[in-house]
Amino acid sequence: MAGLLVLRPDLDWNVSGGLFYWTVEFLADRMSDPEAAAYLREISDENLGSLWLSELSPSARAEAVELLRDHLVDAADRELPGGKGKTAVLGLLRELADMARRLGQ
After folding, report:
1. Phi and psi (nearest 5°) for 12?
2. Distance between CA atoms of 102 and 14, rounded to whole angstroms?
3. What percentage of the chain has pLDDT greater than the value 90?
């Protein structure tokens, strides 16, 4: 099963379900807005398979983009287990971080 994270209608990230849900949980654990965090946990808990950042409030969306852009890859490097697949996973997460950077351009 795959997961889809839509940063904007013309910019999305489609990855394996496991990596998608790890990313959603990464966001939920770090969001300062309790309502946004609960919404993200619902996506993960219910295996909904997609997250559209446009469904977050403007302030929560800005925070999510900042987290993806500035903290995602380092957190994954620290938290995800090692092994031969980790390099590929970090590469996929870097792609998402790069997409988040493009939102500010």
Report:
1. -140, 165
2. 17
3. 94
Q: Which two tokens stand for residue 5?
A: 């994270």
pTM of the model: 0.95
Which residue's structure tokens are 């890859």? 73
Between CA 100 and CA 30 the distance in angstroms is 16
Q: Which residue has the tokens 């980790």?
A: 86
Contact 67/99 with Cβ under 8 angstroms? Answer: no
Count of alpha carbons within 13 angstroms of residue 49, beta-carbon side: 2
Q: What residues are paired with 2 via a beta bridge?
A: 16
Instruction: Give residue-wise pLDDT tens across range 22-63.
Output: 999 999 999 999 999 999 999 999 999 999 999 999 999 999
The residues that bridge with 90 in the sheet, in sequence order, are none
